[in-house]
């Protein structure tokens, strides 16, 4: 891949990273804000209804799930930036073939080609089916 192209993808990845970091921080505040409020407030004034507590926990788990996904995406972006640094970006880590430009345009932080991704997904599905 040309240096100019690498620079372009680097910019895309950095923008994506910035957006993602903003989102994760925002979601963390949302998810943890409630419990912080509860902890700092006068506990004797907090009514405890089991139904409410259940809903709160459910919302929080859902948001924390999103944060974890975001963190995985962030890791992938950091990996991609590293690969740009050592000029292996755009090459499949599994089979060493070039990753299609269309795939990189859609998912700039992928580290494998569409064929390897498909194989991986098929493998995972197979494992999940058994049992
Ligand atoms: Zn591959």
TrEMBL record:
One of its GO terms (molecular function) is zinc ion binding. Keywords: Metal-binding, Zinc, Zinc-finger. It holds the Pfam family zf-dskA_traR. A zinc finger (dksA C4-type) spans 92-116. Residues 88-121 form the Zinc finger DksA/TraR C4-type domain. Coiled coil: none annotated. It comes from the Bacteria. This is Transcriptional regulator. It comes from Candidatus Scalindua japonica.
